[in-house]
Design a protein that fits this description.
Belongs to the complex I LYR family. The chain is mainly alpha-helical. It has five helices and no strands. Helices cover about 55% and strands about 0% of the residues.
Amino acid sequence: MSYLQYTTHSHARKVRSLYKQAIRLLQSYYESFDRYEFRYQAVVMRARFDENKNETDLRKAKKLLLDGQKELFLKSHAQPMKFAESPGGVAYQRHFPPPDWILDTWHPYEKAQYPEYFALREIRKKEFIDRWEKQYGKGDHEVDH
């Protein structure tokens, strides 16, 4: 249920988020074929936000925010632009980093090429195990060597 909002955001943060989403929407429409038109539309969008940046009446500011969110929804793009490595992008998690335990399977000759790294790694592993045992205790199934 990650779609449920469980933190409160300030009005200013919501406005900044709306502005960023509006600029990304403009990129979806204009960036692919006309960079200059996109920049012009981005300046116009910034001017629309700057017109109301000093609004002190919270009811009016809230209504402006809701109207902006509604307009953003109504003008949403059929295929919004996404960065390739971002969630939803074509290359998201394409190159998943290997797990740390892979280094434990290296041959000693391979480890000998990086002596300082593996010496520090062994110290960090021992610190991690000691911290774990201090916090959770030793397991009953462990055998002392």
